Every structure is written in C-alpha cells, then in structure tokens.
C-alpha cells in the first residue's frame, strides 16, 4: 500500500514552501476567501438545520436517532454537507490560482466551472471519503495514504474537466509523492481541528447568549477559514505536481478559465 523505494520522488514536492504559500494566499486574500466560502457554508447550514434542527447542525445539541425518519434526515444532511463542501472547494481552487498569479479575484466567474463539476466532485468525494474511512478503521497511516492518493481530485475535475475520471487522474498525479502530500495535509488538518475546537466553544457561547441566527452566521464565517485554507493547499499541491511531472506552469493551468 506504500510507495516503494524505487518510486521515491526525484524532485522534492517542497512541503514547506507549499504550506507557507498557502498561508500567504489565505491571509493575503482573507476577506475574499471567507466571503467565497461563507455563502455555500451558510446555505449548507440552513439546509441541514431545516432537516435536523439548528442546534444539532451547529453541534450544540446531541443528535438523536429515535426513529427511522431522524436517521434518514441525518443521511440527507451528510449528502448536503458533501455537496456544499465540493462546491466550496471547486470555487476556492480557482480563487487560489488567481491569487497566486496576482490576478483580480472574481468570485462570480468561478461559479460556472464549479457548478459544471459539482456532480462528479460530490460523488467521487463521497467514494474517496468512504475508502479513506475504511482504511482509517484499519490503521491511521493507511487512511492518510488513501486520502493523499485522491487529494487532488477536485482540481483535476475543475481544471482538466476529467469528470468521473477524477479519482484515477489524482492517483496518477500523486504517485511517488503520496507521503509528502500526506505530511502537508496533516499540517492542514491540524489547523482544521484547532479551528473546529475554537468554533465549537465560540458557537456554544454565542448560541446561549445571542441566539441561533448569530451563531449560524459566526459558525459559517469561522468554518470558511478552515475550508478555505485546505482548498488553497490542495490547489497548490495539484499545481506543483503538474509542474514536476508534466512541465505545466500555474499560468497555463489557470488559463482554462480565461
């Protein structure tokens, strides 16, 4: 399940540089990243809240599975969240390239490519998540490895329009670089865990003091930061892999949106 010594990368991925640049893009375009991610995240929260209640959707109340209807509702929430995450990532991947190339960030221009890629991105994200979940049940390292294998699936679908071939395309691109990618993603996931912990504390307090509406807005804004960072990091990893393996520059990648 691991890359063999003969498959070791000849050119370093440059994890440190990718991490640093992803933070630079995030903080250099902080408000734009949060706004682009905020709208779909808030929409997903509203849909989830309508299905299972806003306290459960915000994580300030324990979910219940007392009857089949409630279990079905939680299943629908999972699907909603997967679709929203897929849409958000597809939007932010495009923003990341514009920001990297110091071009104007134009959120309205990103929706067409993101929506056209939504179905394969959502379905394949679910498949990849299930595969990584099963691997994690066996042992955490294989789970991270599987996650790394399919990590650049979204930009491959959005940029190259490979549709349901996204998993295979990601597997080819990440070959020889899966452990470095896993290391980069672990650092990103640590950030997500920290943000989610802070979000949980803040949302619980705000929900108690200020009510559900304010808590939902704050939840969406804070969650957008974590989603934004991971999406930017994945976009940069994809660009770096194509540069190393295919000699494709970032401006050539981004030119498909012109």
**Secondary-structure element order, as H and E?**
HHHHHHHHHHHH
Radius of gyration: 18 Å
Main beta-sheet strand count, sense and barrel state: none
Number of domains: 1
Q: How much of the residues is beta strand, in percent?
A: under 5%
What would you call the shape? globular
- Tell how many strands the DSSP assignment holds: 0
Distance between the termini: 39 Å
Helix content: over 70%
Taking pLDDT < 50 over at least 5 consecutive residues as the criterion, the unreliable ranges are none
Describe this structure as you would to a colleague.
The structure is a single chain. With 258 residues, this protein is mainly α. It has one domain (5-257). The chain is 80% helix and 0% strand. The chain is built from twelve helices and no strands. It has helices at 15-28, 30-52, 54-58, 68-100, 107-116, 118-138, 140-149, 153-160, 166-174, 178-210, 212-246, 250-254. Helix 4 crosses helix 6 and helix 6 packs antiparallel against helix 8 (153-160). The mean pLDDT is 83.
Q: Could you give the topology of this structure?
A:
Layout: H1 15-28, H2 30-52, H3 54-58, H4 68-100, H5 107-116, H6 118-138, H7 140-149, H8 153-160, H9 166-174, H10 178-210, H11 212-246, H12 250-254
Helix pairs in contact: 1-10, 1-11, 2-4, 2-11, 4-5, 4-6, 4-8, 4-11, 6-7, 6-8, 7-10, 8-9, 10-11
Organism: Roseibium marinum
Transmembrane segments: 33-54, 74-97, 118-141, 147-167, 179-207, 213-239
Keywords: Membrane, Transmembrane, Transmembrane helix
